[in-house]
Design a protein that fits this description.
- There is one protein chain.
- The strands form 2 sheets. Strands 1, 2, 4, 5, 7 and 8 form a 6-stranded mixed β-sheet that branches. The protein has a 4-stranded antiparallel β-sheet with strand order 3-6-10-9.
- It has helices at residues 2-30, 71-75, 187-206, 216-238, 249-276, 280-307, and strands at residues 33-48, 53-63, 77-79, 85-92, 97-107, 119-128, 136-140, 145-146, 156-169, 172-184.
- β4 (85-92) and β5 form a beta hairpin.
- The chain is 43% helix and 30% strand.
Protein backbone atom coordinates (compact mmCIF):
# COMPACT_ATOMS: atom_id res chain seq x y z
CA UNK A 1 0.00 0.00 0.00
CA UNK A 2 2.82 2.42 0.84
CA UNK A 3 4.59 1.70 -2.46
CA UNK A 4 1.34 2.17 -4.40
CA UNK A 5 0.64 5.50 -2.65
CA UNK A 6 4.18 6.68 -3.39
CA UNK A 7 3.72 5.84 -7.06
CA UNK A 8 0.43 7.75 -7.20
CA UNK A 9 2.03 10.79 -5.55
CA UNK A 10 4.95 10.67 -7.97
CA UNK A 11 2.61 10.50 -10.97
CA UNK A 12 0.60 13.49 -9.75
CA UNK A 13 3.82 15.43 -9.12
CA UNK A 14 5.04 14.78 -12.65
CA UNK A 15 1.67 15.84 -14.12
CA UNK A 16 1.66 19.03 -12.00
CA UNK A 17 5.20 19.95 -13.07
CA UNK A 18 4.32 19.37 -16.72
CA UNK A 19 1.25 21.57 -16.50
CA UNK A 20 3.19 24.30 -14.70
CA UNK A 21 5.93 24.21 -17.35
CA UNK A 22 3.40 24.48 -20.16
CA UNK A 23 1.71 27.42 -18.39
CA UNK A 24 5.03 29.26 -18.03
CA UNK A 25 5.83 28.65 -21.70
CA UNK A 26 2.40 29.87 -22.71
CA UNK A 27 2.83 33.03 -20.65
CA UNK A 28 6.26 33.60 -22.15
CA UNK A 29 4.92 33.13 -25.65
CA UNK A 30 2.11 35.60 -25.12
CA UNK A 31 4.32 38.32 -23.60
CA UNK A 32 4.42 41.43 -25.81
CA UNK A 33 7.63 42.39 -27.59
CA UNK A 34 9.45 45.30 -25.98
CA UNK A 35 10.82 48.03 -28.25
CA UNK A 36 12.83 50.88 -26.77
CA UNK A 37 12.18 54.31 -28.28
CA UNK A 38 14.44 57.30 -27.91
CA UNK A 39 14.53 60.82 -29.29
CA UNK A 40 16.93 63.74 -29.51
CA UNK A 41 15.14 67.05 -30.05
CA UNK A 42 17.33 69.20 -32.30
CA UNK A 43 15.20 72.34 -32.40
CA UNK A 44 11.73 73.87 -32.23
CA UNK A 45 11.66 75.67 -35.56
CA UNK A 46 8.29 77.37 -35.41
CA UNK A 47 5.29 77.85 -33.12
CA UNK A 48 2.04 79.06 -34.70
CA UNK A 49 -0.41 79.87 -31.92
CA UNK A 50 -3.18 80.94 -34.28
CA UNK A 51 -3.05 77.57 -36.08
CA UNK A 52 -2.43 75.46 -32.93
CA UNK A 53 0.64 73.95 -34.57
CA UNK A 54 4.40 73.75 -34.13
CA UNK A 55 7.32 72.49 -36.22
CA UNK A 56 9.91 70.20 -34.65
CA UNK A 57 13.21 68.77 -35.85
CA UNK A 58 14.44 65.65 -34.04
CA UNK A 59 16.11 62.25 -34.27
CA UNK A 60 14.06 59.16 -33.45
CA UNK A 61 15.50 55.70 -32.84
CA UNK A 62 14.32 52.21 -31.92
CA UNK A 63 16.21 49.45 -30.09
CA UNK A 64 14.78 45.94 -30.30
CA UNK A 65 15.59 42.24 -30.16
CA UNK A 66 15.81 41.00 -33.79
CA UNK A 67 14.89 37.47 -32.68
CA UNK A 68 11.53 38.76 -31.38
CA UNK A 69 10.51 41.27 -34.06
CA UNK A 70 11.73 42.11 -37.55
CA UNK A 71 13.06 45.53 -38.52
CA UNK A 72 10.26 45.86 -41.09
CA UNK A 73 7.69 45.50 -38.32
CA UNK A 74 9.49 48.16 -36.26
CA UNK A 75 9.34 50.49 -39.27
CA UNK A 76 5.55 50.15 -39.37
CA UNK A 77 4.72 53.01 -36.97
CA UNK A 78 2.82 56.29 -37.34
CA UNK A 79 2.64 59.70 -35.69
CA UNK A 80 -0.71 60.39 -34.05
CA UNK A 81 -0.68 64.19 -33.88
CA UNK A 82 1.09 65.04 -37.12
CA UNK A 83 2.33 63.88 -40.50
CA UNK A 84 5.97 65.00 -40.67
CA UNK A 85 8.56 63.97 -43.21
CA UNK A 86 11.09 61.37 -42.08
CA UNK A 87 14.04 59.62 -43.62
CA UNK A 88 16.07 56.67 -42.43
CA UNK A 89 19.46 57.64 -41.04
CA UNK A 90 20.72 54.20 -40.00
CA UNK A 91 19.33 50.68 -39.85
CA UNK A 92 20.92 47.47 -38.63
CA UNK A 93 18.64 44.44 -38.44
CA UNK A 94 21.33 42.28 -36.83
CA UNK A 95 22.03 44.71 -33.98
CA UNK A 96 18.35 45.61 -33.61
CA UNK A 97 18.69 49.35 -34.22
CA UNK A 98 16.72 51.76 -36.43
CA UNK A 99 17.10 55.55 -36.57
CA UNK A 100 15.22 58.36 -38.34
CA UNK A 101 15.57 62.11 -38.81
CA UNK A 102 12.12 63.65 -38.48
CA UNK A 103 11.04 67.18 -39.34
CA UNK A 104 7.53 68.55 -39.70
CA UNK A 105 4.42 70.12 -38.20
CA UNK A 106 2.48 68.73 -35.26
CA UNK A 107 -0.91 69.79 -33.92
CA UNK A 108 -2.33 70.27 -30.44
CA UNK A 109 -4.97 72.33 -28.65
CA UNK A 110 -3.20 75.17 -26.89
CA UNK A 111 -4.63 76.43 -23.61
CA UNK A 112 -4.75 80.24 -23.56
CA UNK A 113 -6.38 80.65 -20.15
CA UNK A 114 -3.33 82.44 -18.76
CA UNK A 115 -2.42 84.32 -21.97
CA UNK A 116 -0.10 86.25 -22.21
CA UNK A 117 1.61 84.46 -19.30
CA UNK A 118 0.77 80.97 -20.49
CA UNK A 119 2.92 77.90 -21.07
CA UNK A 120 2.37 75.13 -23.61
CA UNK A 121 3.40 71.51 -23.93
CA UNK A 122 4.73 70.58 -27.38
CA UNK A 123 4.37 66.82 -27.69
CA UNK A 124 4.93 64.09 -30.27
CA UNK A 125 2.92 60.86 -30.07
CA UNK A 126 3.52 57.66 -32.02
CA UNK A 127 1.99 54.18 -32.16
CA UNK A 128 2.48 51.01 -34.15
CA UNK A 129 0.09 50.77 -37.08
CA UNK A 130 -1.01 47.16 -36.60
CA UNK A 131 0.44 45.60 -33.43
CA UNK A 132 -1.60 46.32 -30.31
CA UNK A 133 -0.34 46.35 -26.71
CA UNK A 134 -0.69 42.57 -26.40
CA UNK A 135 1.92 42.15 -29.16
CA UNK A 136 4.20 45.20 -28.79
CA UNK A 137 4.97 47.65 -26.00
CA UNK A 138 7.09 50.76 -26.36
CA UNK A 139 9.45 51.70 -23.55
CA UNK A 140 11.59 54.78 -22.96
CA UNK A 141 15.26 55.00 -23.87
CA UNK A 142 17.02 56.91 -21.09
CA UNK A 143 19.40 58.52 -23.59
CA UNK A 144 16.62 60.77 -24.90
CA UNK A 145 17.33 64.48 -24.46
CA UNK A 146 17.07 67.94 -25.98
CA UNK A 147 19.85 69.77 -27.81
CA UNK A 148 21.31 72.39 -25.41
CA UNK A 149 21.30 75.00 -28.19
CA UNK A 150 17.60 74.48 -29.03
CA UNK A 151 15.57 77.67 -28.72
CA UNK A 152 12.50 79.57 -29.92
CA UNK A 153 12.56 83.34 -30.27
CA UNK A 154 10.45 84.93 -27.57
CA UNK A 155 9.98 81.72 -25.58
CA UNK A 156 11.73 79.69 -22.88
CA UNK A 157 12.27 75.98 -23.54
CA UNK A 158 12.45 73.41 -20.77
CA UNK A 159 10.82 70.44 -19.10
CA UNK A 160 11.79 67.83 -21.72
CA UNK A 161 10.32 64.42 -20.85
CA UNK A 162 9.37 61.07 -22.37
CA UNK A 163 6.64 58.63 -21.36
CA UNK A 164 4.87 55.48 -22.44
CA UNK A 165 1.09 55.23 -22.19
CA UNK A 166 -1.73 52.99 -23.36
CA UNK A 167 -4.43 54.31 -25.67
CA UNK A 168 -7.66 52.45 -26.40
CA UNK A 169 -9.66 52.43 -29.61
CA UNK A 170 -12.81 50.63 -28.55
CA UNK A 171 -11.78 47.16 -27.43
CA UNK A 172 -8.24 47.43 -28.84
CA UNK A 173 -5.41 49.02 -26.87
CA UNK A 174 -2.13 50.26 -28.34
CA UNK A 175 1.12 51.23 -26.72
CA UNK A 176 1.90 54.91 -27.31
CA UNK A 177 5.27 56.61 -26.94
CA UNK A 178 5.15 60.32 -26.11
CA UNK A 179 7.87 62.92 -25.74
CA UNK A 180 7.26 66.57 -24.99
CA UNK A 181 8.96 69.86 -24.22
CA UNK A 182 7.55 72.79 -22.28
CA UNK A 183 7.26 76.21 -23.90
CA UNK A 184 6.76 79.25 -21.66
CA UNK A 185 6.73 83.01 -22.17
CA UNK A 186 9.38 84.98 -20.26
CA UNK A 187 7.42 86.69 -17.48
CA UNK A 188 9.30 90.02 -17.63
CA UNK A 189 8.96 90.28 -21.40
CA UNK A 190 5.25 89.40 -21.27
CA UNK A 191 4.66 92.04 -18.60
CA UNK A 192 6.46 94.79 -20.51
CA UNK A 193 4.71 94.00 -23.80
CA UNK A 194 1.22 93.20 -22.51
CA UNK A 195 0.56 94.78 -19.12
CA UNK A 196 2.75 97.86 -18.99
CA UNK A 197 1.27 99.64 -22.07
CA UNK A 198 -2.34 99.31 -20.91
CA UNK A 199 -1.30 100.31 -17.38
CA UNK A 200 0.24 103.52 -18.75
CA UNK A 201 -2.88 104.25 -20.84
CA UNK A 202 -5.10 103.73 -17.79
CA UNK A 203 -2.97 105.99 -15.59
CA UNK A 204 -3.10 108.73 -18.24
CA UNK A 205 -6.90 108.51 -18.33
CA UNK A 206 -7.08 108.79 -14.53
CA UNK A 207 -5.18 112.09 -14.63
CA UNK A 208 -8.56 113.62 -15.38
CA UNK A 209 -9.35 113.35 -11.64
CA UNK A 210 -6.71 116.02 -11.00
CA UNK A 211 -8.30 118.51 -13.40
CA UNK A 212 -10.59 121.27 -12.22
CA UNK A 213 -14.32 120.48 -12.48
CA UNK A 214 -14.74 123.42 -14.88
CA UNK A 215 -12.46 121.70 -17.39
CA UNK A 216 -14.98 118.94 -18.02
CA UNK A 217 -14.48 119.09 -21.81
CA UNK A 218 -10.79 118.24 -21.46
CA UNK A 219 -11.66 115.55 -18.89
CA UNK A 220 -14.07 113.78 -21.23
CA UNK A 221 -11.75 114.17 -24.22
CA UNK A 222 -8.91 112.58 -22.28
CA UNK A 223 -11.13 109.71 -21.12
CA UNK A 224 -12.53 108.97 -24.59
CA UNK A 225 -9.19 109.10 -26.42
CA UNK A 226 -7.50 106.81 -23.90
CA UNK A 227 -10.48 104.44 -24.09
CA UNK A 228 -10.05 104.22 -27.87
CA UNK A 229 -6.34 103.55 -27.37
CA UNK A 230 -7.14 100.78 -24.86
CA UNK A 231 -9.64 99.17 -27.24
CA UNK A 232 -7.11 99.20 -30.08
CA UNK A 233 -4.49 97.69 -27.80
CA UNK A 234 -6.94 94.96 -26.73
CA UNK A 235 -7.62 93.95 -30.33
CA UNK A 236 -3.90 93.96 -31.10
CA UNK A 237 -3.16 91.87 -28.02
CA UNK A 238 -5.60 89.14 -29.03
CA UNK A 239 -4.63 89.09 -32.71
CA UNK A 240 -1.86 86.57 -32.05
CA UNK A 241 -4.12 83.79 -30.77
CA UNK A 242 -7.14 82.00 -32.28
CA UNK A 243 -10.70 82.78 -31.15
CA UNK A 244 -11.45 81.08 -27.84
CA UNK A 245 -14.70 80.15 -26.17
CA UNK A 246 -13.41 81.25 -22.78
CA UNK A 247 -11.88 84.35 -21.25
CA UNK A 248 -8.12 84.60 -21.20
CA UNK A 249 -6.14 86.51 -18.59
CA UNK A 250 -5.79 89.31 -21.16
CA UNK A 251 -9.58 89.46 -21.56
CA UNK A 252 -10.16 89.63 -17.82
CA UNK A 253 -7.47 92.29 -17.50
CA UNK A 254 -9.06 94.41 -20.23
CA UNK A 255 -12.54 94.02 -18.71
CA UNK A 256 -11.12 95.42 -15.48
CA UNK A 257 -9.61 98.31 -17.43
CA UNK A 258 -12.94 98.99 -19.12
CA UNK A 259 -14.63 99.12 -15.70
CA UNK A 260 -12.14 101.77 -14.57
CA UNK A 261 -12.67 103.74 -17.78
CA UNK A 262 -16.45 103.54 -17.35
CA UNK A 263 -16.12 104.78 -13.77
CA UNK A 264 -13.91 107.64 -14.93
CA UNK A 265 -16.26 108.72 -17.73
CA UNK A 266 -19.36 108.39 -15.54
CA UNK A 267 -17.80 110.65 -12.90
CA UNK A 268 -16.73 113.14 -15.57
CA UNK A 269 -20.21 113.30 -17.08
CA UNK A 270 -21.82 113.76 -13.65
CA UNK A 271 -19.33 116.50 -12.75
CA UNK A 272 -20.03 118.18 -16.10
CA UNK A 273 -23.76 118.07 -15.32
CA UNK A 274 -23.21 119.74 -11.94
CA UNK A 275 -21.07 122.47 -13.51
CA UNK A 276 -23.79 123.12 -16.11
CA UNK A 277 -26.23 123.60 -13.23
CA UNK A 278 -23.85 126.12 -11.65
CA UNK A 279 -23.19 123.77 -8.72
CA UNK A 280 -19.41 124.06 -8.84
CA UNK A 281 -18.92 123.33 -5.13
CA UNK A 282 -20.94 120.12 -5.43
CA UNK A 283 -18.92 119.18 -8.49
CA UNK A 284 -15.68 119.66 -6.52
CA UNK A 285 -16.98 117.48 -3.68
CA UNK A 286 -18.05 114.73 -6.12
CA UNK A 287 -14.62 114.82 -7.76
CA UNK A 288 -12.92 114.52 -4.34
CA UNK A 289 -15.12 111.60 -3.26
CA UNK A 290 -14.67 109.85 -6.63
CA UNK A 291 -10.89 110.16 -6.31
CA UNK A 292 -10.97 108.68 -2.78
CA UNK A 293 -13.17 105.77 -3.93
CA UNK A 294 -10.89 104.98 -6.88
CA UNK A 295 -8.30 102.95 -4.84
CA UNK A 296 -11.15 100.93 -3.30
CA UNK A 297 -12.46 100.13 -6.77
CA UNK A 298 -9.02 99.07 -8.02
CA UNK A 299 -8.41 96.82 -4.98
CA UNK A 300 -11.85 95.21 -5.43
CA UNK A 301 -11.06 94.54 -9.10
CA UNK A 302 -7.70 92.98 -8.22
CA UNK A 303 -9.32 90.72 -5.61
CA UNK A 304 -11.96 89.66 -8.10
CA UNK A 305 -9.28 88.91 -10.66
CA UNK A 306 -7.40 86.77 -8.16
CA UNK A 307 -10.53 84.82 -7.24
CA UNK A 308 -11.48 84.20 -10.86
Amino acid sequence: MIKRAAVVVAVFAVIFLALATQSVKAQGASAPVNVQVGTWLVNVEKVDLSANSYRLDFYLWFRFNPSEISIDEVRNFEFINGAPTKYEVYANATQGYLEYRVRGDFITSFDFTRYPFESHELSVELEHKSLDASSLVYSEDQESAIEPTANVAGWDLGGFQTSNTLHSYGDTTYSRFVFSVNLARPAVSAFIKSVLPIAVITVISLLSFFMAPQNFAQRITLGVTTLLAATTFHLSLLSGIPPTGYLTFADRMMISVYVIFLYNLACSVYIMRLVDLKRVDDAARVKSKALKFLPVLIVAILILQAVL
